[in-house]
Design a protein that fits this description.
TIM Barrel; alpha/beta; about 250 residues
């Protein structure tokens, strides 16, 4: 099973920051999951919420900030005083830091019409990481597929059923990503029949994490990667997606 640190090891460090990403990998995650939005001056930044209020010392919609303004916000003190001064990260800088590693990157699109820029940054970066672009918004995935026939896609859903499987297949997604707590044997069989990888979210509750692992999910995003590492060490689990050999590993300039 692939372990992805959810917004980095967000149970141990402030989400979507370099500290959280490095911590997640140090704790044994096979990669990291993170969110992308666009600043008012066009930069693609790693951030989850519509507004900056919850996780920084700023106020208001992120989309109204320029990158020079965003880069000076404190994105760590809300979590703990020892993370004071932690900064928001640009997507291009995250790719520079982690794209050259043999890890998995799950990129969640939280804004519309950023697909072309996201793909351009991915293809223009010398990398070895396996990158999967995900979204709850099927329209985002359709646009992403129009931008590239090569990009790996993952459809984030609240449930896994015939409708969501059909939607995932309509954009030629490789993954379907349901709520771990709601996953069932029948849903796993449905995904397997459709040749879809199953990567779960909402894995913080111990019962949900154990449920998805017991059913043979291919991966999970977790706030505490160490907990899943320890669980799999005693209950078994691997570190490759099915069909990982065919995963996109574009290497370009650099």
């Amino acid at each position: 099973m692939i372990i992805l640190a959810h917004r980095g090891a967000s149970g141990h460090a402030p989400e979507n920051t370099l500290s959280a990403f490095y911590r997640g990998l140090d704790l044994g995650a096979h990669g990291v999951e993170f969110d992308l939005r666009r600043s008012s001056d066009g930069e693609i930044v790693v951030f989850h919420d519509l507004t900056v209020d919850r996780t920084t010392d700023g106020h208001g919609p992120l989309a109204e900030y320029t990158w020079p303004e965003l880069r000076h916000l404190d994105a760590g003190s809300w979590f703990s005083p020892r993370f004071a001064g932690e900064r928001i990260v640009r997507f291009v800088d995250l790719l520079y830091a982690f794209g050259g590693r043999q890890i998995h990157l799950a990129v969640e699109l939280k804004a519309n019409h950023i697909e072309e820029d996201v793909w351009a940054m991915i293809t223009e970066t010398s990398r070895h990481a396996t990158i999967t672009v995900t979204s709850f918004d099927l329209t985002n995935l359709k646009r992403m597929r129009e931008v590239s026939s090569e990009v790996r896609l993952g459809y984030l859903t609240k449930t896994l059923d015939e409708r969501t499987v059909a939607q995932a297949r309509s954009v030629s997604a490789e993954q379907i990503c349901p709520d771990a707590s709601a996953l069932s044997v029948e849903q796993m069989q449905m995904a397997r029949h459709a040749a879809l990888e199953v990567r779960c979210w909402n894995s913080r509750p111990v019962g949900a994490m154990q449920n998805a692992a017991a059913l043979g999910a291919d991966g999970m995003t977790v706030d505490f990667p160490d907990r899943l590492v320890d669980y799999l060490a005693t209950h078994g689990g691997s570190g490759e997606w099915p069909g990982h050999e065919a995963a996109l590993t574009v290497q370009t300039r650099g």
